């Protein structure tokens, strides 16, 4: 069961995202990003953006997060936060909402500038794994 938003230490999760952000490699955009999430078994995972001289193939912080999720045993994301280079709460980009949907589904709770919201509100009518099995 996903713990409700109020039972989660969002400050601690945001601190982990801020720490991850300090490892960003963003020489092209100059825009560092850090993310962190809780997993349904109590683990935490995090990530930072890693850019590339071929600008379009840079990796968002969420790419690192889902990679760490899978590498450390899989599971489902339950709570997620994202911060910018100033440590301020940031919304995940559109593509990364899709990544989060794959591993957290519509009930994943996101910390956003507008409060704690389920992914179903950040990515309505999502295309997902369920469509491929129809
Ligand atoms: N970025 C992320 O890492 N995650 C997001 O959700 C938003 C954007 C990165 C990509 C790029 O390295 C930089 O922010 C500027 O777009």
Automatic annotation (TrEMBL):
<dbReference type="InterPro" id="IPR050202">
    <property type="entry name" value="Cyt/Deoxycyt_deaminase"/>
</dbReference>
<keyword id="KW-0378">Hydrolase</keyword>
<dbReference type="InterPro" id="IPR016192">
    <property type="entry name" value="APOBEC/CMP_deaminase_Zn-bd"/>
</dbReference>
<protein>
    <submittedName>
        <fullName>Cytidine deaminase</fullName>
        <ecNumber>3.5.4.5</ecNumber>
    </submittedName>
</protein>
<keyword id="KW-0862">Zinc</keyword>
<dbReference type="InterPro" id="IPR016193">
    <property type="entry name" value="Cytidine_deaminase-like"/>
</dbReference>
<keyword id="KW-0479">Metal-binding</keyword>
<dbReference type="Pfam" id="PF00383">
    <property type="entry name" value="dCMP_cyt_deam_1"/>
</dbReference>
<comment type="similarity">
    <text>Belongs to the cytidine and deoxycytidylate deaminase family.</text>
</comment>
<feature type="domain" description="CMP/dCMP-type deaminase">
    <location>
        <begin position="8"/>
        <end position="130"/>
    </location>
</feature>
<dbReference type="GO" id="GO:0004126">
    <property type="term" value="F:cytidine deaminase activity"/>
</dbReference>
<dbReference type="InterPro" id="IPR002125">
    <property type="entry name" value="CMP_dCMP_dom"/>
</dbReference>
